[in-house]
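User: Show me sequence and structure for the first protein, then do the same for the second.

Assistant: Starting with the first protein.
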Amino acid sequence: MQDPQTELGRMSVSKGQGGFAGNVLTLGGGATVAHLIAFCCAPITNRLFSPEAFGTMAMFSAIVLIAGVALTLRYEAALVLPARDEDAANLLALSCICVAAGAGLLFLAIALTGDSLARILNAEELARYKWLIPIGAFAWSMGLPLRAWAIRHKRFGYMATASISETGASSAGRIAAGLAQLTGSGPLIVTDVTAKLLSAAVLAVRPILRDVKFIAANVSWRQMMELGRKHIRFPLVDSWSAILRQGSRFVPPLLLGASLGQASAGHYSRAVVLGHIPFLLIGNSVAQVFYQQAAASHAEGKPISALVQEVTERLVWIALFPMEMLALIGSDIFRVVLGAQWGPAGQFSRILAVWLFLEAVALPLTGLIRILGRFGAGLAFNTVLVAGQIIALAIGGWAIASPQVSVVLLAGVGAAVHGGLCLFLLRESGASLRRAANSLVRYFAYSLPALTITGAAKWWLGLANWKIVLIAIVTSLSYLVLVVRHDKWASSKLSALVSKARPGQRRRS
């Protein structure tokens, strides 16, 4: 449903409608479907492909996404900030031009250095697919400004469709390749790039069909250059912060593969992917909606501390219990869901659980760095994180040559940096640290019954892996019941969902 069009210049751009919770549910619903597809397909794909194949795929993705985040020069992050849609349209055009030019330069760089890079990373198979690197980076980067345009205008349904399309195409392609006995890293790489192209195409549908006249009427080289200079801190500072942030996600599999082999990179990447599922299901949606609403409130001079407080509590609720279960029975979950060969990935997930929890809370709030103009602080945090990871892997990967030590050191660095980032963002926004701590203690108390029963099944009764996982699923209902019973926000949203699902009863009442 659309609200009345807002008159802007010679034309207008229609905007979506809905409050924070409704938009999160819309976007989160699409993300939930997308990642449920991936989760349901994971038991099949992880049995069809080896850890080595996924390791090479993780290294390819690392190169694509680290390079890709730089192509827009981060102008897409500024797209939601202007009060006028004419300015946003110029930033959209500027971002797309930067992506196209950057992809061309990346193509030349890969042509000159692709083979050498594969040898340095101890992944010779990457050289066979080096030409897909600029294509994948272009597709992923082009989606960034298109997503920012959709976020600005609250078109979260399109973003949900793009997420489902990308995940569905990737999962279907992997299964088809595996059943056809094409089980190397190549099919994983090809399907990943194809899915990114499909997602970008879906995101481009609305601007092309509905907004192209508005964009064409308001975009000019002079205006693009003026806005580029106005937001120069995004390419000069925030772009480096974004590259480092992306590097913090993908430097570990790159260096693990280079030092300890593709199998270690594959186990690590699977551990992180499964550990990120709670964040991907709803936390990422919270982040995108939060950034749009916080930016709008800040531009109007309104305080954002209450919004930050609410979002932080919701993120703790979402992320805490899954990470606790991952720390307790991660190895059992991986053996049951993915197969016995992924046992080491389950051990990695247990080690990484605290870091993954703090990251899931911190990342959705990082939009505050751009909103509040604290670019230097964001760059500092990301620099410390990547430098710490490189040191950790130099010690664990090359000096000690132990995957377990490497992951323990990575987890320590990640937990320390993201914990500090959470505290910094809460303080800068004016949110209450005491209230955030109280919510953490409260949700931990709600999780104790399920954790106690599951722990007893694992450590005292010594049950089989699948029985332990089944008990964890059943007892998790106690956590949800306690949250809904004692959390007014959760209770009200559940009641709203129930009433929407029963329109006939609502009319009778």
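Switching to the second protein now.
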Amino acid sequence: MNYKTKNFRAQANKVLRSLILAILFSVSLFQPAAGDEVDVTFGETKVENFFPNGLRFSVKIVVQNYNGKFEFYYRLGEAEWVSYPIYCSPNTRDEVEYFTCVYYLNYEVLPPQLTISYKWRLFSPVNKVNKYSTEKTIIYENSSFNWNSLHEDKLTIWWHDHPSEFTKQILTVATDALQKQEGFYGVERHWCINRKVGVIGLSE
């Protein structure tokens, strides 16, 4: 009688363990992946140029029952990405819930013809959301002039109201100076932006 009881308990434990494993497997198999619970639609970003005072980015993001963070990412030229948390105002129109997000990029001086990449991000550990909009790139320019550009290796020169021959001479002199500096200091120089003087240049 004692043997049968032990055998029954052992069989019951095996069945119980099998059921627990099956339940855990089902939960892990059918649990939605992070970021799939909330349907997000990023509208087209409107970019307003207030040269020389900066840029204003605004977008409409359609998302329902969302309680999380909004961030704006931007990159100046080939520099590192920078992110800023932003407040987005909730709205409802024709029974559609959406948020209006605005970010104003304003440095002391942003040099003209600066390439700026940007994107938006939604993040919420509660809703399991981590989604980015499509990355876009614009050129920050003074629209008062008709700009032209020349590029060679690591240097790009923008100009207006001058003959192209004059600009080619400048590019040749600048490229030669860069090569001499790299040889003299024994380092390869990379793109950077000097925020204090607002000049795109090359730095270690």
